[in-house]
Amino acid sequence: MASVAKEWREIPGRYNLIGSECKNCGKIYFPKRSLCPVCRRQSLGKMADRSICRKGEIYTFTVIYDAPDCNNRLKPYAAAMIRTDDGVMVTGQIADADLNEIKIGMRVRAVLRKLDSDGASGVIHYGFKFVPDE
């Protein structure tokens, strides 16, 4: 059983911010794309995997006060669009921050956190959240 969990964790891109880069025009995308919408046909076969920077700043955000009760999510919580240091926009939840202190331009970094689980003894789902970068 332990080997199954290890194999699942080691799937490329599973717990990594992996996007794609067009080797024709240099544009970076997240999530990955197989075709560049800028270059279109010229990008066929020229899209390459690229790690996305885990640090960036809040481009815009919202505080969600009322949402469906699922997986014991604490409310209220903040969701934001983050412009990473390599210029890619990533959406994620802001964690470990006072909701009144979150602001546009605030520096953040991606961290791996528990998102939810399938019941008391079920599979735990992990994903990225963003925390203030001191």
Provide tags for this entry:
mainly beta; 8 strands; three-stranded antiparallel sheet; OB fold (Dihydrolipoamide Acetyltransferase, E2P); 134 residues; five-stranded antiparallel sheet
Describe the structure.
By secondary structure, this protein is mainly β. Helices cover 6% and strands 42% of the residues. The protein has a domain at 53-132: OB fold (Dihydrolipoamide Acetyltransferase, E2P), CATH 2.40.50. The protein is built from one helix and eight strands, in the order αββββββββ. Strands 6-5-4-7-8 form a five-stranded antiparallel β-sheet, with no helix packed on it. Strands 2-1-3 form a three-stranded antiparallel β-sheet, with no helix packed on it.
Q: What can be said about this structure in brief?
A:
With 134 residues, the chain is mainly β. The chain has one helix spanning 2-9, and strands at residues 18-22, 28-29, 47-51, 55-64, 77-84, 89-94, 107-117, 124-132.
- Could you say which overall geometry the principal axes of the C-alpha atoms support? globular
N- to C-terminal separation? Answer: 39 Å
Strands, count: 8
Rg of Cα set: 17 Å
Write the CATH fold name of the domain at 53-132. Answer: OB fold (Dihydrolipoamide Acetyltransferase, E2P)
Average pLDDT across residues? 84
Q: What structural class do you assign from the helix and strand content?
A: mainly beta
Walk across the major sheet and give the strand order.
Answer: 6-5-4-7-8
Q: Which CATH C-level class of the domain at 53-132 is it? A: Mainly Beta
Beta-strand proportion = 35-45%
